[in-house]
Amino acid sequence: MPYLATLLRQLAHPTRAAYLTLPLLLAAGALALVLRAVFGAAPAWADTPQSDIRRGVAFYYGTTPPVDLLSGYGIAVLEADSGFSPREHPLPDTRWYAYASVGEVTPHRAYYREIPPDWFVGHNTAWSSHIVDQSTPGWPAFFVRHVIDPLWERGYRGFFLDTLDSYQLAAKTDPARARQREGLVRIIRAIKTRHPQARLILNRGFELLPDIHDDVDAVAFESLFNGWDQSQRRYVPVPDNDRAWLLGQARTVRDQYKLPVIAIDYCAPDDDACARSSIEQTRALGLIPFVTDGALQTVRPAPAPESESDSAPGRNARAPG
After folding, report:
1. Are 262 and 57 in contact (CB under 8 A)?
2. Is 3.20.20.70 the CATH classification of the domain at 47-311?
3. What secondary structure letter does DSSP report for 128?
4. Where are the domains of the chain?
5. What pTM, to 2 d.p., does this model score?
6. Which PANTHER family does the entry mention (predicted)?
7. Cys staple from 291: which of 8, 40, 74, 275, with CB 3.0 to 4.6 Å?
């Protein structure tokens, strides 16, 4: 069994599969034969996270997920409080991920009242949310118990971790920021300790990757070409210097950590030209595109998937940056 556990961890990260030892390779062949004998074919969970991501990633934060549209994507990220049950909607080619806010909590979350008031260190007025002190010793266990565990029980096996940089609104010195980053690392490791098979996608969190890149399957960021201004509730073009910084981060994520990068852009629901332009430009950079509205309640039909070679670094019109 130790070989099997090691094998599954290695296979979950294809970029490291090339370093499998001979005994593990033999075990992989035996495992494939067993799976085929039992299931008739490899079951859905045997697919790699990267193959799911190459089929596209969608985000929908409404109350009634459009299952038919989402079934065209390899991964669908849903609002945790939507009431959706992955167990009731098993799809052969789509993995259900739950949204989970790490750095901020809004009062409407069921677990909000359970958080001690002194765990909050600030307020994000744009989203009417409270910023959590990531250095609080009890926060990782609380987050796993009150956020991740209930979603796991509902059938979610993947999680989209958001608000990973919210601490910067409250931490104003280098030592304070370092303590917040250390706390975020502890949370991600706590999730993987409790649920080793959990699949994680980060929203930004670039500064955490040196410590936890082996624990995550992809990195996303928002607003590459078109953004959403929550304070003014309008769509805005992204300045060139902001885009250049994001593309520099994307290059590091792909080249140094060998992780796929997802770019989420925002266009009005009826602005198909905006969405089409964003998708084409993002793909030309070798990134995985998704375009939605400011409330993340618009899902367009999934674009035709590119082959692995088409989306590999160095095979596109130009690389990030």
Report:
1. yes
2. yes
3. T
4. 1-46, 47-311
5. 0.81
6. PELA (PTHR35882)
7. 275
